[in-house]
Amino acid sequence: MRSGGWHTVRHYLLLLCRGVFGTTLCTVGPLSQVQPATFPALKPAIVWATNHTWWLLPVGFLLTFTEFSLQIWGSPSKWEAVHAFLDGLQEHVFSDGTSTPLHEKRVTLFEKRRCCCWLKPARSTFWMWGRGRHPWSGWLMPAVRSGHTTQKSGTVFLCPDDAVNAEGVAGRAWECNGDIVRHAPHNLELLWKNKVKARRNFIEFRGPNLPGFDAEKRELQDRLHRAERDLKVAVRDYAELTSVSEQWVMCRLHSNKLCSRWFYAVPVEVNGKPWGVIVIEAATPPFTDKDSLIAFKERLTFFKKLLGSVLESL
Q: pTM for the whole thing?
């Protein structure tokens, strides 16, 4: 994420390094060109600078790298402004006044990046980026998320040049450069808990080897099979609806992470060019009828332009 404590610490460390490297260039370079007899009081410093002029090349390289990093990551204060914008959008969308946990109704800004060095879950066993893909295939990575929970998200979606293979609702919004709405009918968390409970009851069954208890054991086994079948069907439908793999869904369930049931994704432009995607997700749909959703789409157009102007200043 671009906002948060580590981003602030990194920014000020880069500023400190820029100051040190810049001061070194501004002192060693000029001093090495001065004759010691010109300024006798500075003779030790002049001699030292003359003997260490080779420092100028690596220090200049480090200064360039530091300046480039500052430009890439942006100012923490500006990213905090983006975070405040997403918080406002979250309050606007989920303004029903209920005390739903924040991680069940959140807004995430994904940024399109060329390179991604680490993926979780891995797309394949021996090559985490997947068959025919690589770190520079193009990826949608989380930049800022509303609220103060689930800020360490590692959710990354493939967003290649052949956009037909893009992943997730965010990837579909990027592909068509338009709004995408998805509503999953199944509650995966509940089906997962039912399967875990049925498996635990079957494994822990310790009845004597009698006909009556055999029937009870078969009943527990049938319940487990039904729970596994229902979960498998729900995972398949969810993966197809949200354009992810079944492995990706199962990994989230195994990690006890939320699989949201309602998604609204909309692309964001900066200077007239695609920059990323806003994904609004919730455990339950915030809009009960089609008219309220259409009205929200019209209001979201203003939010998109406002966010684009904020990102333009980064």
A: 0.82
